[in-house]
Task: structure prediction
Amino acid sequence: MNNYADWTSTLRDAFLGLGQQVIDYLPNLLAAIGLLIAGGLLAKLLRAAAVRLSRMLEQMMLRLSRRPPPVRPGRTPAWGRLLGSIVFWAVVLFFLALATHVLGLEAFSSWLNRVVVYLPTLLVGVLIILAGILVSALTRDLVIATAPLEESHRVLLGRVVQVVILVTAIVIGADQIGINVTFLVILAAVVLSTLLGGLALAVSLGARTFVANLVAAQSLRNSYQIGQTIRIATYEGRILELTPTAVIIETAEGRVSLPAKFFNEQPAVLLMGRDA
Result:
């Protein structure tokens, strides 16, 4: 009987002690739950603000670059969704670290604290990369719209400028995050050299015809005059104009613009006695 009484007393004391611990721990538990709820609400609010800011920046870029509006206006860009997710989880981790500290989970709290301390560095690196994406796209559109080149050359030059700015931003952002960028720098140098070489080759190939016409036109000015009648290949007519790169003649069918280098490739006949 005494053993039963001792066992009952021990069990009652254990339950009373457990109940007292729960009562003592309850404020910390409620505070942690409150922090998590507040953190979740604030994270959603800041994510919505980041997404809205990304839409505003996207619209501003569209106006500056004069690009056509998207098929679905008001759609959040991919980089905006990424920024919103980063902001959301950064806030959630911050409040989760606070909650674990309040609950006294020191091991987990210490690990989360290291993550939270690293978050600003990570966020700055990501923002640098996102800024590089925005600036590179805007610069590409400006180059395509304003460069005094043929359309294909403008597009190529715009792409090269975009890649250069984007790679630079990625290297700077990765270095800010703490990633060893030596390999990235070497890779960027190789890519940049390849792109610049391709650009130089494209420009030289595109300018070859222009230069040939320009040189030939200078020579033609010493051989022909406006008003003379010529025959070259299947064309016959009176010279109306000698432009810097072409010869414009009036034929029976109408006006024809002949590239100046055409006179170096085909025999031309000056028809005497038919001058205007």
The chain has two domains: 2-67+77-179, 219-271. The longest helix spans residues 2-65.
